[in-house]
Design brief:
Layout lengths: L1 H13 L11 H13 L3 H13 L5 H13 L5 H11 L4 H15 L2 H15 L1
């Protein structure tokens, strides 16, 4: 499965050689961002995912992908994208809340960690 995803990602990116990006379309930018993320090219993925996720037609998937990259970079902007993902897909509420709680736990920000832990407890109940 993973090999097929990598091949699909490479094929999509190959359509835009030397960084020539197509005209903005949130769906296409989202797909390209996810393709770059699949290949571990997060620096190229993040700007595309940000732009796609913030658009009114952006998806929960692109918001969650932007959040993953930002969480890995220990960037608090990730919380904005976790909240956006939750707003767009209720099935992501528990995962996104858990990720936010873990983020603040790792940062040793007790106040924000407690807030997200309380939210997580409400979601899990």
């Amino acid at each position: 499965m993973r090999h097929g995803k990598v091949q699909e990602a490479q094929a999509l990116i190959a359509q835009y050689p030397q960084g020539r990006m197509p005209r903005f379309d949130p769906e296409l930018y989202g797909k390209l961002g996810l393709a770059f993320e699949t290949l571990g090219r997060n620096e190229e993925a993040l700007p595309l995912l940000r732009e796609a996720a913030l658009h009114s037609r952006g998806t929960a998937e692109t918001a969650m992908a932007a959040a993953r990259i930002l969480l890995e970079a220990k960037d608090e902007e990730a919380i904005r994208f976790l909240e956006l993902a939750m707003d767009r897909d209720g099935d992501l509420i528990q995962e996104a809340t858990w990720r936010a709680w873990q983020f603040f736990e790792q940062r040793e920000d007790a106040e924000k960690a407690a807030y997200w832990h309380e939210r997580l407890a409400r979601v899990a109940a």
